[in-house]
Amino acid sequence: MDDLKIRRKCEDMITYGYGALRQFPKAERHVLSQEIRQSMWSLLRLIIICNRRYYKKTTMQDLDAELDLLRSQVRVAMQLEYLPFKKYEVWSRLLDEVGRMVGGWFKSTNRGAGKHEA
């Protein structure tokens, strides 16, 4: 019941991300790498909270902002050459899938809210 597709996708993304973060230089393991790990867990936390809340709009906006932050962090890691381009591509694809699912979830929630208002 609680096993949402978006939750599983996010967990897959976290698993992939942890593998990619192991290749970061030692000096960055507790800086950018730590920030990325924290963003990934925040994203999963917001998905779980959003699933449990009746009024989801604010949490979904937070979820969207966290996803945007994570995309930027991964892009910066690639630009600083901490992350190989191939891993960046795969990770970005996983983030895009999660982003599309968040967008669809947001739209379906808004449609449901519109029914109650009409």
TrEMBL record:
NCBIfam families listed in its UniProt record: DivGenRetAVD (NF033474)
Domain bAvd-like positions: 6-108
Provenance organism: Geoalkalibacter subterraneus
Keyword Cytoplasm part of the UniProt annotation: no
GO cellular component: ribosome
Tree of life domain: Bacteria
Designated name of the protein: S23 ribosomal protein
Cited Pfam families: bAvd
Record's keyword annotation contains Ribosomal protein: yes
Keywords: Ribonucleoprotein, Ribosomal protein
Species classification: Bacteria, Pseudomonadati, Thermodesulfobacteriota, Desulfuromonadia, Desulfuromonadales
